Batch of 4 targets.
Target 1
Amino acid sequence: LALEGDFWAANHWFNDNVNGSGNTFNGIYTLALQYWITDIIWLKGGLGLGHLQFSDDFGNVFEDETGFAFMLAAGIEVVQMYNFALDLQVRYGNATYPAGSNGGPGAGDTNMFAFLVGFNWY
């Protein structure tokens, strides 16, 4: 069993004919527990904060929100060495934003899904 800080984010550039172009940033930062159910297979869950930001290419921020977040993950370590492991993992994260920084209704829920290759040092 391991207690970990787990931080992951996605930055997406967009361009459309209505709103112009800009960036969407979505990050999830949690304190997580990782449990190895066998020598090479593990499960992880964490609770923490989510951060969502919308901005244009000129640096103007239209929305900047922080809310409660959780994440779930599972992985298999395909290479194990003395203090290193290479794993394949799948993860899901959810963040809830109750109200917008401009007093609006907020972004609601955001979801992140990922399939990752992990380089881990212990």
Target 2
Amino acid sequence: MSTNTLSRSLHDVGLAAWFGGTLANATALNPAAAQADSASATGAVANVGWDRWTPVNAAAIAAHVVGSVGMLGSDVGRLTVQTGAGRTALLKTGLTVAALGVTAYSRALGKRVSAQTEVPAESGTEPSTGTPSDVAAAQRQLRLLQWAVPALTGALVVVSARAGEEQRPANILDGITSRIPGLSG
């Protein structure tokens, strides 16, 4: 029996960092930036923090995707014969694509915000009266999207746990025998 430890590790560690980092930045960095000495410093602190997180986040996402592809490759036989396993894999793929899309769009908005390094702001995602209108519009969108990424990646953690349960020998056997007429009950 072969193991897939490297792929599983990349999948899990990458997802943990993607989820945890975005949640930490939404709950801590963005509000903490408001404690800066001035409205311009608030924007600068938030921008520096998110810009420093970006390469780490990109590496985490890459690790997760590489690990996911490796796991999918090793599970393809089981996915085709075990009832429900294919649906779980499709759900994981859909959540991953959605999280990637929201992350990419959030980064594009973040670039718009950080292009003006010391833009005045109330917090990392809340414009002030002195915030330029294009930056303010991006911040208002980011206020919602900062929660969408952890929500999607958190859902991915839950679905991944379900997928792990499907790999228990008894569940594999049940999933395969349920396809055979007369054996399911």
Target 3
Amino acid sequence: MTAINAIASRKEKGFTLIELVMVIVILGILAAFALPRFANLGEEARASTIQGALGAVKSASAIAHSKCLADGACDASVATGQTAELEGDDIDMVFGYPAATADGIQSAAQIETADFTIDTSTAGTLLIQSPGATTAANCQVSYVAPTAAGDAPTITSDTTDC
């Protein structure tokens, strides 16, 4: 009789099946609401990267232009053959602004091909695109070098489909 009483007096510890099912259901509901909030972070990250590249290109263009104006050897009225030295690198200049080339604005802004896709297929235009974008042409920075003395480059960005 003592053995039966010892078994009956001992209480089992743990969760019941209903408690486990309820925890799983609650976790499923939380996951259903949380997942869509975090699923689109890649697009926002690519758009932010393009905005950062836009700032770098604008700053580099202004700094190189200022350096060209301050430097007596750089003539802002000449289309080719001019350079400005920034941090030990010679930057190719066009009418006092960086050229739309790898040795021009890309070097001045320190844009790396490991981080971006660079398109220089159109003369006078450099496109900095985010790899992995849904549409590369709608997730880019466009730098168009000036075409005449006294003109400024056209620098635009598009983040509509990153």
Target 4
Amino acid sequence: MGERARILVVDDDEGIRTTLTAILEDEGYKVDTAESGKEAILKSNAGFYNLALIDVRLLDMQGTELLTRIKDTVPRMRKIIITGYPTVHNAIDAVNRNADAYMLKPFDIGKLLFVIKDQLRKQKDEIKFSQDRITEYIETRVKELNTSNGRNKSE
């Protein structure tokens, strides 16, 4: 991924959206925001994001519900639940719905940036693994076809 990573910030609190946008843009990320789950779903259907920061409490749905409703992308969008209302239930629900991380508000900005970078690195590793698997498949298939063509000519 030579270009800047794209991050979607989903939070009904305008102050948090504005603050996170400023911090993340200063770090070199392209940032888009959504104030509701419905808006996040529309944006994820229309464009690609490497990572989403999703508040657990949105006006129209729970952030944990949004985890399963947001569009799956290739490479898979990394999803981080953020909450000012941590509960064991929310944490378990987030894990069960494939959240990649769970962060508490108020944020430790250093830790948040570390988690974002770590998730983007994991995404990059997944892309590399997939590319390596595709390359192996193609090389093996070419060898099979060449061997098969060689037999056909000699028969």
